[in-house]
Amino acid sequence: MLLLAxxxxxSGIFPAALRFNERTLADKSVPYAxxxxxxxxQELQDPVLxxxxxxxxxxxxxxxxxxxxxxxxxxxxxxxxxxxxxQIEASLSSTRERFSERGLIPPPYAGTTHNINxxxxxxxxxxxxxxxxxEALRSALGEVRASEAEQQAARQLLATNVARSYYNLARLLAxxxxxxxxxxxxxxxxxxxxxxxxxxxxxxxxxxxxQGVIPENARDIAALDEQVALARHALAALIGKTPEAAxxxxxxxxxxxxxxxxxxxxxxxxxxxxxxxxxxxxVEAAGHGMASTKAMFYPNINLRAFTGFSAIGFDQWLDSxxxxxxxxxxxxxxxxxxxxxxxxxxxxxxxxxxxxxxxNGTLLEALRDVADQLSILHSLDIQMERQQATLASAERSxxxxxxxxxxxxxxxxxVLNVETGLIAQRRAAVDLQGRWIDSRIRLxxxxxxGFAETAPSPxxxx
Length: 462
Prior knowledge:
The protein has helices at residues 47-59, 61-81, 132-198, 204-238, 274-295, 340-406, 412-446, 458-461, and strands at 87-98, 113-127, 300-312, 326-332. The chain has 462 residues and is of the alpha+beta class. The chain folds into two domains: 20-85 and 132-298 and 343-454, Up-down Bundle (Outer membrane efflux proteins (OEP)); 87-127 and 304-332, Outer membrane efflux proteins (OEP).
């Protein structure tokens, strides 16, 4: 094979990056069922959220751009595939010309003016003995598969962002409601302390302390108003609408339910991550691209055939005597090109290295992402269990204080002070609930969101 490559040689050029074996990085002892499902958001049983995600998948500009990239990759693959088939073209020309008296044209045409007419049908077929065009097609098809997977990754990321923004808005609205409750409670407390000061029971110190938290809480409400507005604008942008489109949304945080997820990394994680599948196809495409470039060092063989009519003048142009058929074989071999082919091959090797490095980085990031979300959910389960106990204690304390007040054993001030602690615990519980649903959605995204590869993956073919 090296002898066929002439003076131009690809020796000494090869990729340097090593691809991780993803199957050795996951815990194969852990079974992994079909979770999450493809339309995982429907399991949250929120019709409004489902409608918003469907709108986003239909109207989001980023997703439309991903679809355009897929169409572009498909068109490039079609154009590349055409090189494997014979090419046929027709040509027609008519040129009026004066023939030189001292040129190649002999008398009686020398020194006269005539029309030179040509009608030709020509065909050409590049015989792909060394696989240059076949490898180029495989590379282009790999790019198509990668674009398909990237489109699915974009869909999954968009659905994830819509769900996260939706429940972030729900958390902020719940916090806003509690902040307003706290403000009303603070106003009641300040009014009570003011009456106690007038009665000589409390001093101005207690009054200033009670009144000082009112503007502070009003500031917090204003900050929450801002965050709610920004959350609505972000959600509207995700679904491809103008900022006011989400003004009427009033989502609620879902109830916390146990998740049947593995405690360690699942063995078939990679089949559920569209970005990893896309990276695998990029590596595959780069490898075929390098093989196509390598074939350029070998002879290029073209078979050409043509037929037609050629004549001087119109009167005998289409006569049988004007027929001009022919067939030929052309072989070209690179001898000296000032290093052009070697540099092209170096570029191909660098493309493989870049694709492998991108795959390795995507794989490690995916594994870290899953591990992070599993750790966060495990920690949140513990935190919420402790918070529920704390909240239950605060509710019991408030109930007892209210009973004592109603029985004239304690005063209203005690009830309001205990209620302050109860509201604080409810706010902490809302934050934990919001973090839990957010982490659950992020885990769904980390596990691929139910993505399943339709084409056989490069790893499965090896």
